[in-house]
Amino acid sequence: MSKSISKAEKERIAVILELLDKEYSTEIKIYLNHETPWQLLIATILSAQCTDDRVNLVTKDLFKKYKTLEDFANADIRELEADIHSTGFYRNKAKNIIQCTKTLISEYGGEVPKDIDELTKLAGVGRKTANVIRGNIYKEPSIVVDTHVKRISRKLGFTKEEDPEKIEYDLMEILPKDHWILYNIQIITHGRTICVARSPKCEQCFLNSYCKSFQSASICDMKRNKNEQKK
């Protein structure tokens, strides 16, 4: 942790991570089904603005139809669009998948690169997708900033940023490396079960004592109640 933060804040972060470990375990797992690194890469490209469950439904048949990188590289774009239509943004995704797989074959011998700069040169691959690959395939300490990580990290007071890349760097500064991959996995689960975007279960949340958003809301409620009592 190189970021200049107080001892109390370090202790708060440590407790939050300990509670996440206890509640969700420290098992490294990924929700996108795959058998090879390139399948995970394609699944992650498809997951943009789409749920993992929907992607898994699509790739169940997709990876049976397109069994190799060459199958994707040589795919008819209109046919591939139809195959992935339900994941949304299917035109861009189909174009990117074909271009990405062609590049993997022509420049990387069919292997998915490990370096983040090489990964982000691939069509359809941003830092989020690159870090999914680095963290889950190559076990490189990486922080994946998806919608859950962005929203909940802001609630916890780990960052004030809106830009995913800036959030990534903020989290790299305050989280120990052994939690970089794990944090994303745990926060996804937390965001799906308790800190749900549309209806967060704040009163039931085991982190509410350490959540700056919840504490701030509680203080506002107390002040509002006091003002109402004075009237």
- Strand fraction equals under 5%
Question: Radius of gyration over alpha carbons?
Answer: 20 Å
CATH architecture of the largest domain: Orthogonal Bundle
Uncertain runs: none
Structure summary, number of beta strands: 0
In DSSP terms (H or I, runs of 4 or more residues), the helix count works out at 12
Largest sheet: none
Mean pLDDT: 92
The CATH class of the largest domain is identified as: Mainly Alpha
CATH topology description of the largest domain: Endonuclease Iii, domain 2
Binding site for [4Fe-4S] cluster: 195, 202, 205, 211
Family: Belongs to the Nth/MutY family.
Catalytic activity: 2'-deoxyribonucleotide-(2'-deoxyribose 5'-phosphate)-2'-deoxyribonucleotide-DNA = a 3'-end 2'-deoxyribonucleotide-(2,3-dehydro-2,3-deoxyribose 5'-phosphate)-DNA + a 5'-end 5'-phospho-2'-deoxyribonucleoside-DNA + H(+)
InterPro entries: DNA_glycosylase, Endonuclease3_FeS-loop_motif, Endouclease-III_FeS-bd_BS, HhH-GPD_domain, HhH_base_excis_C, HhH_motif, Nth
Structure description:
The chain has two domains: 1-27 and 143-231, Helix-hairpin-Helix base-excision DNA repair enzymes (C-terminal) (Endonuclease Iii, domain 2, Orthogonal Bundle), CATH 1.10.1670; 37-136, Hypothetical protein, domain 2 (Endonuclease III, domain 1, Orthogonal Bundle). It has 231 residues and is mostly helical. Helices cover 61% and strands 0% of the residues. It contains twelve helices and no strands. It is elongated, with a radius of gyration of 20 Å. The protein has helices at 7-24, 37-46, 52-65, 69-73, 77-83, 90-108, 116-119, 127-136, 147-156, 164-174, 180-193, 212-230. It comes from Anaerocolumna aminovalerica. This is Endonuclease III. It catalyses: 2'-deoxyribonucleotide-(2'-deoxyribose 5'-phosphate)-2'-deoxyribonucleotide-DNA = a 3'-end 2'-deoxyribonucleotide-(2,3-dehydro-2,3-deoxyribose 5'-phosphate)-DNA + a 5'-end 5'-phospho-2'-deoxyribonucleoside-DNA + H(+). [4Fe-4S] cluster binds at residues 195, 202, 205, 211. Pfam families: EndIII_4Fe-2S (PF10576), HHH (PF00633), HhH-GPD (PF00730).
